[in-house]
Specification:
By secondary structure, the chain is α+β, with helices and mostly antiparallel strands. It folds into three domains: 204 residues, 2-Layer Sandwich (Nucleotidyltransferase, domain 5); 183 residues, Nucleotidyltransferase, domain 5, CATH 3.30.420; 165 residues, no CATH class. Helix content is 27%, strand content 29%. It has 14 helices and 31 strands. Strands 10, 11, 12, 13, 17, 18, 19 and 23 form an eight-stranded mixed sheet that branches. Strands 1, 2, 3, 4, 8 and 9 form a six-stranded mixed sheet that branches. A hairpin with a 6-residue loop joins β28 and β29. α3 packs across α4, α9 crosses α10 and α9 packs antiparallel against α11. The longest helix is centred in the middle third of the chain and has 25 residues. The two termini are 45 Å apart. 37% of the residues are buried.
Length: 598
Amino acid sequence: MSSSSRSVFRGPRRKLVLAFDVGTTYSGISYSVLDPGQVPEIKGVTRFPAHEQISGASKIPTIIYYDRHGQVRAVGAEAMREGIYETAEDEMWIKTEWFKLHLRPKTEASRHIANEIPPLPLNKTVTEVLGDFLKYLFECASSYIQDTHANGPDLWASVEKDIDYVLSHPNGWEGIQQTQMRQAAVQAGLIPDTTKGHARISFVTEGEASLHFSIQNGLPSGAMKEGDGVVIVDAGGGTIDVSAYSRNTKEVKDSFEEIAAPQCHFHGSVFVSIHARLFLDKLLAESSFIEDLDHIIRCFDKTTKLRFRNIEEPQYIKFGSTRDNDATYGIRFGQLKLQGTDVSQFFEPSVKCIVNAVIEQRKSAHKSISHVVLVGGFAASDWLYMKVLDSLKPLGLNVLRPENHVNKAVSDGAISFYLDHFVRTRVSKVTYGNFCHIPYDSSDPEHVRRQGNTFMSVSGSKRISDTFDIILPKNTQVSEAKEFRKPYFRESENRNEFKDASFSIWCYRGAVAEPRWKDVDTDNYTKICTIEVDLSHITLTPRYKGKGERGQYFRLDYDLVLLFGLTELKAQVAWREGSVEKRSPTKIVYDPDITRDD
């Protein structure tokens, strides 16, 4: 779809939408000025401070230099200026890069990379560092829009107090990461810390943003017209995000549905450099050039890694001058020689990851898949593209890369997500549920085995605790409007215990098809969040205990109403007063402890 088939903006006044794509290694900004009666267009910021010499550059390095007092000294392209390395050394500045990976969910799949990520500066949290970077991106957007638009300063003045933001994140990020990103936006001064301020931020996964980009920049015609399934592979600096979609052919207006649970893997381009470093660390261990390893890796990143496309030819890392020679280690005239087969091994885990993920998506998808679209900065690697193509083409898959600006896919796609909203159905990545207690059944051997978990309820019935009540099974297609309701009740002799109610939402990430008990595969249960609600205004009628027990108690019957089909979890609590259903808004609180590195 081009902007020509986008409808005109019908808002009452001019609005600005900014999308910040904070990548592990590079970041970009896209935006749209929404004028009433006009068709919105997606534009990109293509000029950044200290990047002027590279006209049309759509991305800057995700790097911040802090001084010893924790003050920001250089960001983005400024942090790569000539001479900055020496200044940083002399003044003992701290270089902060790849900081986005500190946000990642601390699941088993991501634990192995903890030692590979450069540490955060002392006394700085990832939220504070991200806040500093978002503040910088905001300043870049402000300058660019004011400098390049007719009446730029007037335009900016008319929108700056009410800007909407779209923040993209890897497929594997969840509510806790979204909360931290929102906190960073507050710290950066982008929004006030109020409910209304928070609502000005939307989140989109990098996979879904990439789909929106691909729809406008080269989605295969089969996927657009016939509704064939397509896997979008967003290969970035830190993560490889894999998502599968198909067009909903029943609808006249372009709309897509997710057809497999999205995946997120830590095999982006920085891991090619990590494998290169491990190899060279071993190779040069006894050499005097081991001191230059950081510099050699930087040179590998800028040239060898990007140009590599032939396993037969030797590869060179040009890092020194003609005086740097050591034949023992393949160093001549300041160039380190590597075999093409060795360099290919640095890429191998990433290639395998993409191929396996695509095959898995195809296997678990709700529709057949025939196309694979490769986007993201890492997709620019011809070697990566060729190896993925070689593996997937024999399986009958059509693999392609959009021509224009694969590295702008996420920020442009994030604006399209805001404007066009193509995806209306998503697939659950995990099984969601709630631990609760149920009536004890003496004829059920599972109950008898857990007799130690039984108790007598306030109302006098025998119950068994720690059962997992599934609200949404894994790999289920969910529309945005679909509500998931589960009835629960709460009993207590004390009326005040109903005042501030809280409910926990858990997820199960393991292999048991229908998880039922907390004591089976315990480690794969994770608490997602706590839902808090004020119920003090609800009228409760006292009840009398049965089975000869004296006294009264209170009981509240309620439904937990959850919406999983949006890009952010939403929750409400519903109950009945007579024949009327009442609902109460809730506050979702994420537990910050699960985000810390061990």
